[in-house]
Amino acid sequence: AQSVTQLDSQVPVFEEAPVELRCNYSSSVSVYLFWYVQYPNQGLQLLLKYLSGSTLVESINGFEAEFNKSQTSFHLRKPSVHISDTAEYFCAVSEWNTDKLIFGTGTRLQVFP
Amino acid sequence: DAGVIQSPRHEVTEMGQEVTLRCKPISGHDYLFWYRQTMMRGLELLIYFNNNVPIDDSGMPEDRFSAKMPNASFSTLKIQPSEPRDSAVYFCASSPAGGQGQGYTFGSGTRLTVV
Q: Are B102 and B79 in contact (CB under 8 A)?
């Protein structure tokens, strides 16, 4: 069965600094990978996804994630964060032959001025 | 489209009472998922439906929990009787083709507090 590990429960960072949120997964078959963002008192919103093809995927607001099959990782990065990026970020995995998304425990990104 | 709509946004109830949470998925989406979010356990998949049929309810914690989807535009999650440990945020999500490549659209959640 698939599983997702987000190694950092909280990541504090200053505005305009780079950030990396780590995600590792476990699966015996091909997977699809996702990052979701949750702002306070809201539902989860899809940030970006990897299905196939280029291992580097980007979001419209400057985030990117790279699929690394050998390391079973899908880390999320942003070269320069804004205060508005403060939120909870969830990594999720779906095996190609299932309908379910399994989520990691989340990483709280706190951006300070 | 108005997105996935959940009601109520907040629910406070006393232990032992019945609680019903409601969800309206996005029109045309075949899949509907119920998740529970707590600080201790994170996001847990409780149950999901495909074309109104429950496919996997292995995440439903106890017999006190039940879910129905009588038609393509409505689903309920019921807890009877409720207990304080059921306090959590319950999310509904829908998808046009399950998790395979589509991702989900989430509702804003129902924050349940059982006192």
A: no
